[in-house]
Amino acid sequence: MRTVKKPYPSFHAEHVGSFVLPPRLKQARLAWRQGLMTRDRLTEIENEEVLNVVERQKECGLHAITDGELRVRNGIGDFFSCLTGIEVDETVSSDGDMPHPLRVVGKLDFDDSHPFLTHYRFLHQAVGEGVENLAKQTLPSPNMLMYPAIRTNEVYPSLDAFCDDLAAVYRKIIQAFYRQGCRYIQLDDLFWARLCDSQMMVREHAAGFELSELLERCTRTLNQALAQRPQDMFISLHMCCRRFSPNWVHGRGREVMGHAMANLSVDSLFIEYDDRRPVGLEPLRQVSCQKVVLGVIDSHSAELDAPQSVKMAINTASLYVPLQQLAISPKCGFGHCEQQGITEEQQWAKLRHMVNIAHNVWTMPE
């Protein structure tokens, strides 16, 4: 683990990044797709809604502030398709595996025309320069390009060459956001959960890949991507589960998560945490980062989580990680839970409730 000049921000309540899309923005996107609204007017509405969610986060008592991913329309494809060498290809078959149909069509690269930089500049200005709050940029992890249909391509002669270029591109990405004033990036990574899934690993084994090899490959690629980051740039890894079982504390998941916790050069790990019993949580002992953020708040339900249940989860985790190195968050972004019927006001109520619980457990910034 690297030595940092500044400690990880002392926030004990965070959120994963995305929020429920406001109805006004849904209507504006529909109007734009139908040719009834200009792109400039849609951008104006996006800006207004981002300003609103920034203020709502502050009102909830959150200090790591995102734009709610309100500008994202096509998941990880929005980010990756704007890299040189990546295209969206709806003909790519993912067999229900790959989150977005992407393919490599040329050497990977990144330049400062990427629209996410413009989005971040707006967020940075909206959050302000005060010491109390920090703008957080969410991005897909480089490992999200490790799906078989992407990593196996005709552009690169070997997987080593592909991973080396991928890591180099992310070093450019981190520096580019840093120049815009960004000091906190959260990388969202579903691939680790895929490695916990037995059915997915049967496919990998049939293709000639063993779990140990993929673990080393993912760890090395991510660590190389982060190798030259500035010492006051904080990097979190959100280990998403989504379609895969979040119960990582048993079986193959313990091996995968234990390896990640011990070897990744990130400042914090966001972990979806469903099992609140101490059995099987030994991988937490291997944590080498400054903070573990426990995804204990149910973002799929409008019902407020029982404070005692959340505190029990925190106490269980504190058997393995010091309490001051822990924080809490929703299990995933609210933007992924709209099909469960979560409303905007319900998400804000859950976040206020989470912050109140954290206030009762830790001394938090006022």
From TrEMBL:
Signal peptide interval: none
GO MF annotations in UniProt: 5-methyltetrahydropteroyltriglutamate-homocysteine S-methyltransferase activity; zinc ion binding
GO BP annotation list: methionine biosynthetic process; methylation
One Pfam family per UniProt: Meth_synt_2
Enzyme Commission number(s): 2.1.1.14
InterPro entries given in the database record: Met_Synth_C/arc, UROD/MetE-like_sf
Record-given protein name: 5-methyltetrahydropteroyltriglutamate--homocysteine S-methyltransferase
Organism of derivation: Dickeya oryzae
